Amino acid sequence: MTVRLGVLLSGSGTTLENFLTRIGDGRLDAEVAVVIASRPDAYGLVRAENAGIPTRIVARKSHADSDSFSAAITEALDEYKPDLVTFAGFLSLWKIPSHYEGRVMNIHPALIPAFCGKGFYGSRVHRPVVESGVKLSGCTVHFADNIYDNGPIILQRTVPVRFEDTPDDVAKRVFAEECEAYPEAIRLFAEGKLSIEGDRVRIAE
């Protein structure tokens, strides 16, 4: 089944670009139905427009509270009827309505439940990883709920953290794994192989 994706982003859109590359070469059976940005200057909008994908700007700063912001996001998504909504570097909180529960994914550049939560993104994840002395980091794809970096975990991939690493070194290593893990999670969803059981995800064989 070709899965229709809604993509929510706030920045450069490198995750979106990964989706588009894999759709283009046949490794991901999906189509991006709409890209919604929480910032009007997000470069991900340019990537989407260059690919002929409809875009919407729902600026967080233009809404008085998270309820009105979330309602505007939901309205924009509903117009395009995605099967699955994917966070692709989306830095605002969208309060997920009931009709999207179990159909929203996020990827986080660390091994949840470590180094996650509000404010943990980009270098704000990788710097504390390096400074903590942990020997492994990685990425986590999970079903999103209404708490930052929370929800049932679908897939995790690991990378080594070496003593001499900088945050940028870890970031590059982790992003390479993100490019594999996120499309794989989307594929499993499209094939109906994911089921949420309590706080865990069962992956069918």
Question: Quick recap of the structure?
Answer:
This protein is α/β, with parallel strands linked by helices and 205 residues long. The chain has helices spanning 14-24, 43-50, 66-80, 123-132, 167-190; strands spanning 3-9, 30-37, 55-57, 84-87, 104-108, 136-143, 153-160, 194-197, 200-203. A 7-stranded mixed β-sheet has the order 3-2-1-4-5-6-7, with helices on both faces. It has a two-stranded antiparallel ribbon with strand order 8-9.
Question: What does this protein look like?
Answer:
The protein has 2 domains: 100 residues, Formyl transferase, N-terminal domain (Rossmann fold, 3-Layer(aba) Sandwich), CATH 3.40.50; 100 residues, Rossmann fold, CATH 3.40.50.170. The mean pLDDT is 96. The protein contains 5 helices and 9 strands. 40% of the residues are buried. The protein is 33% helix and 25% strand. A 7-stranded mixed β-sheet has the order 3-2-1-4-5-6-7, with helices on both faces. The radius of gyration is 16 Å and the shape is globular. Helix 2 links the parallel strand 2 and strand 3. It has 205 residues and is an alpha/beta fold.
How many domain modules? 2
Low-pLDDT segments: none
Strand % is 15-25%
Percent in helix? 25-40%
Q: Could you give the count of β-strands?
A: 9
Q: What is the succession of H and E elements? A: EHEHEHEEHEEHEE
Discrete helix count? 5
Instruction: Kindly identify the CATH topology of the largest domain.
Output: Rossmann fold
Mean pLDDT: 96
What characteristic shape results from the CA principal axes?
A: globular
Oligomer classification: single chain
CATH architecture of the largest domain, by name, is 3-Layer(aba) Sandwich
Largest sheet: 7 strands, mixed
What is the CATH homologous superfamily assignment of the largest domain?
Formyl transferase, N-terminal domain
Distance between the termini: 17 Å
Strand order of the largest sheet: 3-2-1-4-5-6-7
Secondary-structure-based class equals: alpha/beta
